[in-house]
Amino acid sequence: MMTSCAVSVLVLFPLIVTMSTAEPPGCRIRFTNRGLEMLKYETQKFVVEELSNITMPEMKGTQGRFQYTINEVKIHELNLTYADLAFQPGLGLLFEIQNSSISLSFQRRILYWLFYDMGETNASAEGVNIHTVLHMTKDEGGRLKISNITCDASIAKMKMKFTGTLGRVYDLLGTFLTTGMRFLLNKQICPVMNHAGLVSINSLLDTIPVRTEVDKYVGIDYSLLSDPVVTSRSLDMDFRGMFFELANENHTLVNYAVNPIVREYDRMVYLALSEYFFDSGLYSYFKAGIFQMNIANDQMPKDLEMLLRTTYFGTIFMMNPALVEYPMSLQLELTSAPKTTIKTSGATVAVTATVTVLVLPPSAAPVQLSKMTMEAKFHAKVSMKGKRLAVLTDLRRFKIFSNQSALESLALIPLQGPLKTMLQISVVPIINNWTKRGVSIPLADGLDFTEEVVEYHNGYLIIGANLYFSKGIREMIENKLQSDEENAI
């Protein structure tokens, strides 16, 4: 019995270790069937454009007394009787065309006995069926890619309408030519679909940010942690969702946050962000040293300066009576990275900082009067516009106290209200001016959120939205190719 238990533990140990060490996502995105419905029209348009570019080799040969040459084959129209875009569980996306037709024309040159004829012939391929599965995976760099395409195409029949002096005679040749044309056209469909997915669509997926700069201080890592999870109802992607300091990219915050859970399917897309997503950003900015501020001169409210001067008059007078007339300043510096808390009631950010009161004598070093601790809590409102995530803050709680003595903490009580007002008027607008710029989420260029709704859960938030194309798929791909060419110069 003991041996059996030991064997079971050894067998299960690698699985337990994998589960315990698996990195939770800071960002999760779910695309639903509703999103595919919107994407289907753009996909159909793109596929029609791709199939219209089919090129066919010249057909030349002899059949009985006919010598023929067929070239300059042009696709004029793809009539989609039925087309669908759906999730293929465990693989990726399925694009299917059934019972459709292709209208085309070609140039003919035919010699029959001593008669020579040339001209344009119209033809149509009917009963066109195309079954294409796009296998979607994570590549080595953590980017979403189409790694493989499974394609099956068939054409039920081909029709040609010959005109000219030998129109009736051509009927003898028609069966032979239509069989050859049907074979060649059918042979070209899957290579075109493969190129559309592996080259064109992959170039579009390259526009999704993976590891990119946010500003001159920090960057963000949106690399996929695993292959997408595809079911019949959705495609779920787990991204690292981690900010990092540009000056020290390897010094990052460890993710101990909860795993965001998306249960809904009603909207086209869902974006889930854990507390870690926001904490890693705050941590990176903290390490970059931007959470420091000096409030002096014109930034210092006159009534606050007067109150500070009154509060510390005795201290100043005992140090040097000449300092009484000099300007005063406040120096704010965070002692640790801010901490985000997300609950069903909303999101808050807790901040702990030191506030140093200084006198600024001219042509001399600042003189420190006091150093106090400030604890503040901000309400954070998260919003989306296009594909940029922004945050607006509002000061809700504020407290200052002295680490040196309880008596000094009591003396600071009159400063609580004025300092809180100063933060709301002077500091919060500066913070919001920074955070409202936002950060891009991992969506392809030209695809944006609309009609967003934010829901707060314990440990994470979810933004449900619909999608719209600000550009067509073809335009997005061409813009990407143009950008690559410009960057190569």
TrEMBL record:
InterPro entries: Bactericidal_perm-incr_a/b_dom, BPI/LBP, BPI/LBP/Plunc, Lipid-bd_serum_glycop_C, Lipid-bd_serum_glycop_N. Residues 263-465 form the Lipid-binding serum glycoprotein C-terminal domain. GO terms for cellular component: extracellular region. Belongs to the BPI/LBP/Plunc superfamily. BPI/LBP family. The lineage of its organism: Eukaryota, Metazoa, Chordata, Craniata, Vertebrata. It comes from the Eukaryota. Pfam families: LBP_BPI_CETP, LBP_BPI_CETP_C. Residues 30-248 form the Lipid-binding serum glycoprotein N-terminal domain. Keywords: Disulfide bond, Glycoprotein, Secreted, Signal. Residues 1-22 form the signal peptide. This is Phospholipid transfer protein. It is found in: Secreted. It comes from Umbra pygmaea. CDD domains: BPI1. SMART domains: BPI1 (SM00328), BPI2 (SM00329). SUPFAM superfamilies: Bactericidal permeability-increasing protein, BPI. Disulfide bonds join C151-C190.
